[in-house]
Amino acid sequence: MTLREMLGVELPVLQAPMAGVQDHALAAAVCEAGGLGALPCALLAPEAMRAELTALRARTDRPFNVNVFCHAPPEPDAARDAAWRAALAPYYVAFGFDPAWGAAGAGRQPFTHAMADIIEPFRPPVMSFHFGLPDADLLARVHGWGTRVLASATSVEEGRWLEARGVDAVIAQGHEAGGHRGHFLSDTLDGALGTFALVPQLVRALRVPVIAAGGVADARGVEAALALGASAVQVGTAYLLCPEATTGALHRAALQGEEARHTAYTNLFTGRPARGIVNRLMRELGPMSPLAPAFPLAAAAIAPLRIEAERRGRGDFSPLWAGQNVTGCKSIPAARLTRELAGKPSQGRRAWRC
Amino acid sequence: MTLREMLGVELPVLQAPMAGVQDHALAAAVCEAGGLGALPCALLAPEAMRAELTALRARTDRPFNVNVFCHAPPEPDAARDAAWRAALAPYYVAFGFDPAWGAAGAGRQPFTHAMADIIEPFRPPVMSFHFGLPDADLLARVHGWGTRVLASATSVEEGRWLEARGVDAVIAQGHEAGGHRGHFLSDTLDGALGTFALVPQLVRALRVPVIAAGGVADARGVEAALALGASAVQVGTAYLLCPEATTGALHRAALQGEEARHTAYTNLFTGRPARGIVNRLMRELGPMSPLAPAFPLAAAAIAPLRIEAERRGRGDFSPLWAGQNVTGCKSIPAARLTRELAGKPSQGRRAWRC
What we know:
The structure is a homodimer.
Chain A: H1 3-7, E1 13-15, H2 24-33, E2 37-40, H3 46-59, E3 64-69, H4 78-94, H5 113-119, E4 126-130, H6 136-144, E5 148-153, H7 156-164, E6 169-173, E7 179-180, H8 195-205, E8 210-213, H9 219-227, E9 232-235, H10 249-255, E10 263-266, E11 274-277, H11 280-285, H12 298-311, H13 334-341
Parallel strand pairs in A: 1-9, 2-3, 3-4, 4-5, 5-6, 6-8, 8-9
Antiparallel strand pairs in A: 7-11, 10-11
Helix pairs in contact in A: 2-3, 2-13, 4-12
């Protein structure tokens, strides 16, 4: 059985789940075009998750992917939190805020049986996990729905670990990828493997299919990833300008500017390394800082700064997630982009020639 | 004119110059197989350079590439040198050496008119430059020989800079590449672009042909690089086990062990970031250290430690240069490897299927 048969999709294109910049609308558009759309649930409260799943199911009867996180919940650490607030205090003061004040950041919950209770009635054809896998009983529950399970690996060790625990395919997340890096066995970034090195090594090491992620931005990138042995690709950044994405105006502008050529891993926005366009906060405090609290606690103290800066038209404190290759970003419907990625443009021309 | 026509080669495969682990023998074997072999000259004293060029010319009448460095010579800095020696002192003491003692490390000279005097009689069909370009008059002198000029870029900015100064093709050196990173406009590693992101961006930004380097290890990798728009590839790591390479026994063993999956940029061995297999010195002092003197001065104080450790059969202080993808390393003649990379195995089978 090929990966496409396993997932029930026509095209070897998976849309990367991107919490915070998309909802069911993007996922449904990709599914309807023949790719595998994804609904990121890590930021959703229970009622919102149910509403999004309902909306997605109403918009498509094709297979879709429900994505959740599997991080270990952080230990509270008052001293570290205080140090973080002290580092941010000058920005609070500059905005006229009380440095002791804190808005609750959007919570990022790991996958639980309670979340599974919400998801179960929708019987998602595919679920993907980031930052490892849930406990064995929870994973067995998901598999028991007939759901195909995908998870991200950033190294050969992680790929083998996932395969040994029964995933149906592994997403090879290369150094180029935007957003949160999904590592879970080693948190060092020194050895971050580029897509060109990671994909062939996972293809060689694993029996399950490998999905290439990181730097894949157009039909040529898809062709290259398949040449390296991948069975499909997962594309995120290229979808960020689609009308169906909820990407904010500042983020859209940054993706289209010269600054989009300069991204870096940063832990300032959530506590875990994620790749985004370098902005003021990253330049001044990082991009990586030992002061940032454990994931996802760093987000809470950033939230007021982000909200106020965005109100003033500045992305200085916004996570401008992007991969290293924004050349595929286009303000076109996601369905059309999906077919272009697969080398099947709707209008009979190879869009990457334009 | 295609890049292959410009360089006068049959195959879209350039052998990466690898100072310290190869001489004319590897270069000649690659040239004779239809690729572009390279002679790294940065570590060679004048007489050795002349001898190597003579030997290469005697072994092949096909085009070859002569590679030199273009770094700015370092300013002497006694305080920094003392700090570096202090950091290394415990290792000196453990070996019974006087920490004040220093062997002269192999010198790495930037390209000069004096070096051009030696090279000129050989009229190299191709020269490649690392760490930027020589001054305009020196570059014009090389072009005046009818020599085609290549240089490495790690970013779009560097690619444009090189194109504006008249290079004939740009080597896109991605994050995955082994050995010295060729950056020259920005020394930050935060934004190091993976091959999958760098190649398409340079192809889009430049008019001159782009050569993909970093992670390319077999015929599938070559196919993928060409799919991304590259006109050819430059491969280094895969050649390190060839009998024609002068790679030492410890280095060869490391390339074939599990540790080869873990590489990092390190400045400990020369003062500039270069990718190698993580070993004891990198784990204990780095891999990147602010104490390391400017390139190439760090090398001198490491040399006695390296020599003694290697005598004892340990690679603890050796630069074990390697890219992130060693899956293509094979102990086969370089000619056969070259043809396999180009998808033309000598013996009628696709070696990458094995």
